[in-house]
Design a protein that fits this description.
The structure holds two protein chains of two kinds.
Chain A lengths: L2 E8 L9 E8 L4 H10 L12 E9 L2 E14 L5 E10 L1 H4 L4 H7 L11 E3 L14 H4 L5 H10 L3 E6 L5 H10 L6 H4 L1 E3 L3 H6 L4 E5 L15 E5 L30 H7 L2 E3 L15 E5 L15 E4 L1 H9 L2 H33 L1
Parallel strand pairs in A: 2-6, 7-9, 7-10, 8-9
Antiparallel strand pairs in A: 1-2, 1-5, 3-4, 3-8, 4-5, 11-12, 12-13
Helix pairs in contact in A: 5-6
Chain B lengths: L8 E2 L6 E2 L5 E3 L6 E3 L3 E5 L1 E2 L10 E2 L5 E2 L2 E2 L6 E2 L2 H4 L2 E8 L5 H19 L2 E4 L6 H11 L20 E6 L2 E6 L2 E6 L5 E8 L19 H4 L2 E6 L13 H16 L11 E5 L2 H8 L18 H18 L1 H10 L3 E5 L17 H12 L5
Parallel strand pairs in B: 11-16, 11-17, 17-18, 18-19
Antiparallel strand pairs in B: 1-2, 3-6, 3-9, 4-5, 7-8, 9-10, 12-15, 13-14, 15-16
Classes of the chains: A alpha/beta, B alpha+beta.
Chain lengths: 359, 370
Amino acid sequence: MAYEVVNTSAAAGVVPGQSGYCDVLRTQGIPEPICSELARMSHYDSELCGEGESVSVCTIRFGGETWGVVSRTVPCGVDHTGRMNRLAHHVVVPPSELESTDPLDVLCGFAFRSSYDSAPRMSSSLPTWSGAGHASGAWLAAKLAGWERHVADVLAAGRKSMVLLPMGVALRAMVAEVLTALPRADRWRVGVVTGLDANTAWNQGARLRFLVGAANRAGAAWQAWPGEEAIDLRTPQAPPPRVDRPREKPHVEKQRAPAGWDGDTADRLVSLTPKPSGSGQRKPGFPGAIDVEIDSLPPADGGSPIDIGLIEASPRILAASISNRRTEAVRWGIVATWALMGLLAGALVGTVLWQVTRR
Amino acid sequence: MPQTLVPSTSCPNCWNAFRPTDVRFIAEHPSLMGDPLAGPAEGLRFRSSRFDLQGNAIDPEGKTCTRLACPACHVEMPRALLEADSRFLSIVGAPGSGKTCLLGAASWSLRTYAGDYGCSWVDVDPRMNMLLHSYESGLFLAAPGGYKKPPKTEVAGSSLYNQLVVGGKVQITPKPMYFRVGLRMEGTTVLTLYDNAGEHFMPGPDNLDPLHTRHLGRADALIFVFDPTQARAAGGSSRQELVLIEAMARIRRYAGTDQRATIGTPLFVALTKADVWGREVGIDLGSRPTADSGQVGIDMDRLRQVSLKAAKHFQSAAPELIQSINAFSEQVTWVPCSALGGDGTKVNPAWAEVPFLAALETMIRSPRRV
């Protein structure tokens, strides 16, 4: 069964003693750690959403399994302290229903709340949604027809993308159209967020992020990260011609190694196997980048091994880290010395034996 | 490298202690963009073996590098932490108690009036305090009649928090704010401030083992922001003394304090909105408590008198708070202040900077915590 959670700023939440940003509605039985994760995902930055709604379709890991989350966050007036408030409404799909549930149905057919005026409560009723009618023509209405196909192609090619949209667009409908263009099996996997900077989006496992704002908006959040394709549609333009790209393996779950690890330690303990030449995917803005596969990572902080599929590593990064590995050099020096001594001892013993047998 | 490096320092984000010689430099050359821990948009963190005559590292592509990062978490940190004595100050309070407003007002007041106290107050690196600058601008540099209060502090988001991936899970730490305080007598100290969302201090399952409030265990002093107008207010606002109790419990846990002992961290209770309730109690905040003594020129005697008066008032107005504080700490100073004051059209803070200066004076006088 699916769950729903509403997170907003209120005088009291469903957990006794909570106030401020907290959960005011939860479906009974939802695991507590998932609520903590959702609270973190409820962040809203009005400047990156064009003061409008923010939606996301992504997955989270809990209990060794993947759960689906479809969220919508909207500004909702002022809270009990008189300050600007926002309301995040999440629908959580458990692993057992992930395959049978189309995130598109949830995104388009679920009645997301825009305000919450009741008392905080644990709900016993399950969230439901209708599965009818997805096509909306929102990209056409925004004079950006054809771009949804291009964005879907970028995703299908396993690349990351940042799409900048003009103010006043129907964001949820546009996200839905992009998802429609993807095979159903990929819709949970791609990870789509809106109104998030690259750091937060990537940490959330998203490969596509939408930002909404005026054409002159700039700043760190509005810049594409290396490895991210920027598609700026804030001024209408014709979509590029479609190119049939070979389908590639879905890419990168986590971009970073766990904290507490520096590059040197990670390099020593992690087996890096460069892919055969040509199989690595080059990233724009990340010169010389190749894909390397991590065979295994040791547990961080005593936790379970981290599931990192592919990371990018530049030969220059490796070279720089190698140049700093003095301890490594000393270790190899000791090994070489022992090997040399072994050879000398062997030669000595051989010579003695030869002399003895000769006599 | 300058010759005045401290023997060891701690990362203000992950609290890894390290020697200055182990610090990582941040590569400046565009071809060295991308770091395994800091992310693909950050310059490579590396340990340099080549330096220029000024002591700056030279990256593998020959560019001079001046920015530093922690060797463990690779988050950027100011060079000043390796060169000067540093103090950590945590700001604690319930959601909506006015922590961020107070911080913005205090910072602006200190930028403007630090000279009256005989000390100086400047950003160590303005780039790292940009959020605070926006609070200050909204409050003090807005058009007449339209000042803008800082927005409610979010519980996540990369503008307020650094994101670290620990054990495959994203953990956040508040982005510290750094100030260089020129003292009256003894050179300079670096003050590192932390401002969390009030929700992070609430007792509850979300905050069982949070990285985002680890600074409590390392803080040299604590400012607890208490809004007396919200105490016992109708409408079910959060119980502010519970936040303090939770903060103290975390300090015990993180700092390893004996359960039988009181907390050694000096506590400053900033009693906000004193422009509303102060006159009834007979507290006058008309003039600044300046003095020609001490390291930051604050009149601690006058402050002590005001503190006693305020404590006496809240003994009857908020006994639950007094009782909780007495149970935890012996070094308590009650500081009435007002972050906004004024008549609603213009911000006119009163004593907003005093809790910070009093904390700094006490921290400098006290022996460093280990």
